[in-house]
Amino acid sequence: MRHSSAFLLPSPPPAGGGPAADVALVVLNQPLPRFAPLLWSRAALRVCADGGANRVFDGMPELLPDQDPDEVRARYKPDVIKGDMDSVRPEVKEYYSNMGTRIVDDSHDQDTTDLHKCITFVVKNSDNSNLCILVLGAVGGRFDHEMGNINVLHMFPNINIVLLSDACLIFLLPRTHAHEIHIERSIEGPHCGLIPIGMPSTSTTTTGLRWNLDNTSMNYGGLISTSNIVEEDKVTVTSESDLIWTVSLQK
Predict the structure, then answer these.
(1) Rounded to 5 degrees, what are φ and ψ at 109?
(2) Which CATH number fits the domain that encloses residue 230?
């Protein structure tokens, strides 16, 4: 299974031999990373999770200070605001509703997170098997929210979901595949980590890292691969359990 962060490059990546990814963007209620306008322009569907709409309304003009704020807000209009509606400000909700944004009130459902609701919505509204969901604001806030977001990766192992912040990106490596991670050295690395999720890893093997794993066991209470270093342009990973991959992003 091939992974790449080329979506973060300033110039669009060249078309490959496979089908084009259907990119969806989900914005959570945390400050927007610096590359939010770039990813917005590459997404076919943009969904704000509840208070994520506040972040777009306030944050996009801050990221583009040389442009008229009203024009920026009109240009960066979410397609959907979805969640239990306990965080989005009334004036922001009204502004986007008047602009044609679809408002989906899920306040009746208190058993799933706003991110879970948004991922379910995106999956149901995409017919592309090569779907890629980029999530902004998934880390950097409350720890329980971060763990809930990581749990969503584990709950949707067959969907390519990437959690993004200014500091790092995170995605799941399902145990059902061998993985090739193509490193974009101009934007990511060198620090990285591999963390078992759902169960201990009885055997993980890697190449391309400074401290490679060779049929290595990983578990909480024992070894997990944190503060590792990317050494090559391609990292390979095989494991008998699902793993979380994370790599630092350069400023």
Answers:
(1) -105, 105
(2) 2.60.120.320
